[in-house]
Specification:
This protein is mainly alpha-helical. It contains 10 helices and 2 strands; from the N terminus they run H-H-H-H-H-E-E-H-H-H-H-H. It has a two-stranded antiparallel ribbon.
Length: about 210
């Protein structure tokens, strides 16, 4: 609402303090991990191959649910990275995510075989129908809080890029880092922010702690 008020030149119509509306301030830095894994025994309960592959993409590349459902491997696969189309992404922000491991490459290959020239939405279904099926099957399989897969991706990438675990995983806090380590920390956070589809390095504290 503040963004809208600023755009129309009427900032004063919205109070600057959330407390005025009885809204608590959001707490971003907790240094508590919210990562979620996708255990094979739960994944095997997903009988639909398109939904199963979407879930694996969420885990392996840190994709949002909608991005993973709308994923078109024929379009996205660029060899050393995947390119997410703007229409799949939150806020219409296209982005690239590197393919770093053999497991990721094998997953993209399987997505190719399953989707062909299309997406991970079967040709006879609309997105909203596939989304409902996704919700039904994941709920039946006991899979919840799947946004935690993005947290796990971010934390794994942080360790890979810095060489030490994120604060949310018991790693050193920002205050405990040496100057050169802080430079590595900042570079890693910026890269992770880009891969997750955010513009601000600050948002990584939600996934990594500080």
């Amino acid at each position: 609402m503040r963004w809208w008020a600023e755009k129309i030149g009427k900032q004063n119509v919205v109070a600057k303090d959330n407390a005025y509306y009885g809204i608590a301030e959001r707490v971003f830095v907790t240094n508590t991990s919210k990562a979620r894994d996708l255990h094979s025994e739960l994944l095997e309960k997903i009988t639909d191959p398109h939904i199963k592959t979407s879930l694996e993409l969420q885990k392996s590349f840190g994709l949002r649910r909608e991005e993973a459902i709308k994923f078109r491997p024929d379009y996205a696969d660029k060899g050393s990275y995947i390119h997410l189309k703007s229409s799949w992404c939150k806020g219409g922000k296209a982005r690239d995510i590197p393919i770093r491991t053999d497991e990721q490459r094998e997953l993209v290959k399987r997505a190719h075989l399953l989707a062909g020239k299309g997406s991970l939405i079967p040709s006879h279904l609309m997105y909203v129908q596939q989304l409902r099926l996704y919700e039904k099957l994941t709920d039946a399989a006991g899979l919840s809080k799947l946004h935690g897969l993005r947290h796990r991706y971010a934390q794994e990438r942080y360790r890979e890029l810095t060489g030490w675990p994120a604060p949310a995983c018991g790693g050193p806090s920002h205050k405990e880092l040496e100057e050169n380590e802080r430079l590595n920390d900042r570079a890693a956070r910026f890269a992770i922010s880009q891969e997750l589809g955010h513009e601000r390095e600050q948002i990584t504290v939600v996934y990594l702690g500080r």
